[in-house]
């Protein structure tokens, strides 16, 4: 494996024997390179065959020849401390409430200028309003031991 692919392998020497776990790690890296388009299916198969036959780290390094270092996958995004505070949740609620009011006033305006038939904006107001009620309860209701 180009030793630059895994910081834990920096101290390994090319003549040391590789384990099954080392081979599996290299195969995973080769598959990522294939998914990224650096290796064709044929090249992937050839290199995997070489990895399975490899006995030393030098053999594994040869399988990773001419491939760039892969960065580890990014961790899933997490909420920042600010987003987890009750104040931030309330601020977000007020922004959504503002959008609710503005859009519904706009719909009432359309209804008023379109001849004032049946009051159809009520369906938007009730549907979205129900969601807003649950959201308000979630933000302002009893918190218990729940943490955002």
Q: Please, could you describe this protein's structure?
A:
This protein has 148 residues and is mainly alpha-helical. The protein folds into 2 domains: 3-63, no CATH class; 81-140. The protein contains 6 helices and no strands. The chain has helices spanning 20-35, 41-53, 57-63, 81-84, 86-113, 121-140. Helix 1 (20-35) packs antiparallel against helix 2 and helix 5 runs antiparallel to helix 6. The longest helix is centred in the last third of the chain and has 28 residues, at 86-113. Mean pLDDT is 83; it is low at 1-5.
Provide a short characterization of the protein structure.
This protein has helices at residues 20-35, 41-53, 57-63, 81-84, 86-113, 121-140. The protein is mostly helical and 148 residues long.
Helical content class? 55-70%
Using only CA atoms, what is the Rg?
29 Å
The backbone outline, from C-alpha atoms, is elongated
State the distance separating the first and last CA atoms. 42 Å
Mean pLDDT, nearest integer?
83
Instruction: State the domain count.
Output: 2
Number of strands: 0
Strand content range: under 5%
Outline the biggest β-sheet: none
Low-pLDDT stretches are 1-5
């Amino acid at each position: 494996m180009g030793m630059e692919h895994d910081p834990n392998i920096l101290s390994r020497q090319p003549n040391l024997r590789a384990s099954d776990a080392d081979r599996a790690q290299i195969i995973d890296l080769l598959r990522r390179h294939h998914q990224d388009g650096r290796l064709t299916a044929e090249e992937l198969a050839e290199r995997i065959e070489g990895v399975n036959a490899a006995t030393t780290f030098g053999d594994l390094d040869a399988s990773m020849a001419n491939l760039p270092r892969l960065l580890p996958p990014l961790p899933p995004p997490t909420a920042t401390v600010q987003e987890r505070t009750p104040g931030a949740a309330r601020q977000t609620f007020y922004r959504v409430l503002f959008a609710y009011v503005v859009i519904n006033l706009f719909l009432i305006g359309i209804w008023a200028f379109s001849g004032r038939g049946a009051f159809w904006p009520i369906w938007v107001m009730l549907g979205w309003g129900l969601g807003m009620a649950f959201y308000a309860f979630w933000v302002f209701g009893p918190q218990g031991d729940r943490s955002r």
